[in-house]
Amino acid sequence: MRTNETVSLPAPAAGPDGRVTVWTRRAVTALLMVVGLGLGAGGAALAWYGGSPYYLLTGVAVLASGIMVWRRDPRGIRLYAAMLLWTTAWAVWEVGFEPWQLLPRLLAPFVLGLALLLPAVRRAGPRRPAAALGWPAFAGALILALAAGGLLHPDGPAEPILRRGIADRAPGPLAQPLARIDREDWPAFGNDQGGTRFSPLADLTPQNVGGLEVAWKAETGPDTPGPATALEATPIMVGDALYLCDGHNRVLALDAETGRERWRHDMSNGTPPSGKPCRGVAHYAVPDMTGPCAHRVIAATQTPELIALDAATGQPCTDFGKDGRVDLREGISAYPRGQYYVSSAPQIIRGKAVVGGGIPDGQFWGGPSGVIRAFDARTGDLAWAFDPGHPDRIGAPPPGETYTPSSPNSWAPISADEALGLVYLPMGNATPDNFGGLRRPFDEEVSSAVIALDAETGRLRWSFQATHHDIWDYDTPSQPTLVDLPTANGVRPALIQPTKRGEVFVLDRETGRPIKPVTEVAAPQGDIGAGERLAPTQPASLDLPAFRGAPLRESDMWGATPLDQMLCRILFRQSRYEGHLTPITLGKPVLIDPGSVGGVNWGSASIDVDRGIMIANWMRFPDRVELMTREVANQRQLTLSDGQSPGGDADRPMLNTPYGAYGGLFMSPLGVPCTAPPWGLTAALDLTSGRLLWSKPLGTARDTGPLDIPSMLPLTVGTPVSGGAVTTRGGLVFVGASMDRTFRALDVATGRELWQARLPGGGNATPMTYRSPVSGRQFVVVAAGGKPPLAISLGTKLVAYALPR
Question: Does residue 772 carry a pLDDT above 60?
């Protein structure tokens, strides 16, 4: 037989086994052709938009391989093997050796390639497939592909979190702590009025924290009819009791030693739940008062109302407002149900309870006022109101008038300085968020800012704007943290303000002037809708890390498979993206990075006041937002929120403006992020040097996956996060926040995980810690309540941990 003569392959057997062989080969080759067609068609679209030609070329190769194998041509398997080689080189060239980046590029092609080794498929090739395929040659070529890709892999863009470098070591104890915190209870949402989320307790240390075990669980439920609502509360602890609220309009008191319920008060007054979180309550001890309500718990309902309850019994304090209630709707213009609420704990200062209000994003111009009010904590009388539209008016509006509609609001936790007599509020936007053309000068002054108000009069003492003319939903979400910061000019009273943009601003809390320099940096411009405007520059705190990812590239797109990764790349190319603060563009989707979830969100910062270390949970998760004309918005039937969620709905009708918008997290068709992990991290920085100490992905893939199906993979991926952290004098960080229903203890100096425990629901709240006056043990408590917008498992339990007796 001549060497160049074609080898005739035996015909398939005619029996049942032969039919199975034929159908197996046909199924594999059909799958190859479908995948090839999908990659080829999508690849052609991607190339049309200026994207990578890889998918088009690879799709053609996979399609051709499938056709060849269908025809029992042995070159089909060889072509597929060649495709694996160039895919490997390309993948490593694009992303280096990052495992989570390589996974969607290589796993599916190699798994599909295994199907070509099935006996039913190999019979389409030579009789000795191993020799024909040349396994040693393929292995050698694969090694060369890996090496070539690695050598050609370009350096990525600079990470903003590294712009000040990494510290060589964790700082030692400061000559003077940043704050004097000596209480062993937890009397306020952030522990102290300044929101440090630091505990002086040192019973738990890196050496013994591994011995923590569940001390008790408290059931805050059962759930009630209505929307799914997360338990996001941080309890306060005063005396021997814990106090907290939930998303079903209830306030509870628990025994601090046992978790036993002491009382429960339904705040609803017949009003059904509206899906809003309640993250905390406040405690107030009335001076020179004894008996009922001398100690009272002050909380906000979803109506919203402000209520005062006797801390011992849970009964209403009848000397507060009307039968223990103050209606926060007074003076607010009419609004659809659920479009005005209070989610954060009141802040107590100089005998007053200060509250802001939350307004869902993107609904309509002319909505509820964002007025900030202070009420006498004993009587419930209005002490003052800060209405930016009427800056000189201290009291309520005259009869027949309302507080200024659509003014900037403050929904996040509030801080206060009793000695200075100032209350500090992180501010949101004048709604709607994605169009600012109707905002007034007084809106622009305090939108997306942190402001200081006089605690006695409510008058504005200073304002620092974190984002100018914000059209990206970059409202300031974190509680301002108050410390006394050592500087070259001595110790200064400081305010630390993390932001969704990832910038961290350090200001003098007396004056609002920057302590760490703030630089105005040129921002992208152009291509905006009629009536809109843009700020030419935006503030940046260049002496500190920025908690956001590097500028996005097409190669940063992700997915569970090459197909949905390719679709994410197409979406990327179809969108406008010019880096951080890309303007919202009419008629073309825009990528906003970081997205509306941060950067740093309401979990805020925690400060190790002994060593000057700041801990923050942060996100790398873009939004994709489309601005459209009013005509198009009406055609697409964008509708107002039904009031059953805290905000963030995809429909943003923006009524009474020329535009509507639609948007949300940048996700693939399979419901996984379009950008590569990690998405959620926790990090530490040295406030003295401004350098990063460490940044670690937070959370495993165990409870997440495509189509919200848990993957059960216990691999650290850095899931989306929601919630904050707590630091202790024992050198620990306690944090939940991730999607994997896990509560963790980390070493504050290194970020090394020291302990973890499985929770009955997502730990998407900020934990707290205290010493029990009964046993003297240190307890650590977290709400395991989950987070519906992030598809994190819901729960209704509060879980406490302690060392065994």
Answer: yes
Q: Report helix angle 99-115 to 75-95, nearest 10.
A: 180
**C-alpha span between 571 and 344 (Å, rounded):** 36
177 in Cβ contact with 198 (< 8 Å)? no
Q: What is the pLDDT of residue 512?
A: 98
Element (H, E) at 262: strand 261-266
Burial (0-12, 13-18, 19+ Cβ within 10 Å), 112: middle
Q: Which of 702, 766, 780 is nearest to 737 (CA)?
A: 766
Strand partners, 594: none
Angle, to 10 degrees, between the axis of helix 54-70 and the axis of helix 16-48? Answer: 160
| Residue 25: pLDDT over 90 | no
Give the integer Cα–Cα distance in Å for 540 and 518.
Answer: 6
Q: What pLDDT is stored for residue 222 in this prediction?
A: 77
Strand order in the sheet with 605-608: 605-608, 613-619, 680-686, 692-697
Residue 104 is encoded by which pair of tokens? 């969607």
Q: Are 245 and 251 in contact (CB under 8 A)?
A: yes
Q: How far apart are CA 768 and CA 237, in angstroms?
A: 9
Residue numbers annotated as active site: 473
Per-residue confidence band for 6, with pLDDT thresholds at 50, 70 and 90: very low
How far is 385 from 388, CA to CA, in rounded Å? 10
Per-residue pLDDT reduced to its tens digit, 562-600: 999 999 999 999 999 999 999 999 989 999 999 999 899
Amino acid at 312: A
- The two tokens of residue 458 are 């409510």
**Torsion from C-alpha of 714, 720, 724, 726, nearest 10 degrees:** 20
pTM over 0.90: yes
Say if residues 733 and 206 touch (Cβ distance below 8 Å): no
Return d(Cα 417, Cα 422) in angstroms, integer: 5
Give the pairing of strands 198-199 and 725-728. Answer: parallel
Element (H, E) at 630: helix 630-635
Average predicted confidence (pLDDT) for the chain:
92
Q: Is 45 helix (H, G, I), strand (E, B) or coil?
A: helix
pLDDT at 17 over 60: no
pLDDT above 80 (res 125): no
Beta-carbon neighbour count of residue 709 at 10 Å? 10
Q: What is the pLDDT of residues 340-395, one digit of tens each?
A: 999 999 999 999 999 999 998 899 999 999 999 999 999 999 999 999 999 999 99
Residue 322 tokens, joined? 């009307």
> What backbone phi and psi angles, to 5 degrees, belong to 753?
-75, 130
- How many helices and strands, by DSSP H and E, does the chain display? 10, 38
